Input
Amino acid sequence: MSRPLLALLLLIAPLLVTTPLLAAPPKDLTWAQMIPPDAPVIAPQTAPIHNLSGMADALSAEAAPAAKQQSPSAPVVKSLDGQQIRLPGYIVPLEVSEEGRATEFLLVPYFGACIHVPPPPSNQIVHVTSKVGVKLDELYQPYWIEGTMKVEASTSELADAGYKMEADKIYVYELPES
Output
């Protein structure tokens, strides 16, 4: 190997090792940015579908069929495909590990979506998988989910989602201090 080539390799080698460390942070995404600008406006139906005034009513309501999704094939933003994003939301478990962690879930913009109120449009739901998951006793808490967004439809027993993501990081959402 010639000296100039060896010198060039010695200069480039540290860059090859540190480049992944210099990767851009994920883009903060809002739920509104997941709806194409020309899509029809679909107001969320956040009124509870269950009358929780009495325990017997609550138990029978929980056993009732799930509420019909507002728009199961809402248009998505195709340019989000492949982007590293960070999105806040609430977790609706689909699969739970033996350790009591939700490892597959729907991420939704407001608490109770898909369970106590009709599911939002599919472009407002992300089907997330995670190796670590989230403890079930912490589901009332909003979370940040980081990962690569896929514009890919999926169907579950609770709702259709317009997006998918494998979670790289999951952590508690906290309001910024003012």
Q: What stands out?
A: DSSP finds two helices and eight strands in the chain.
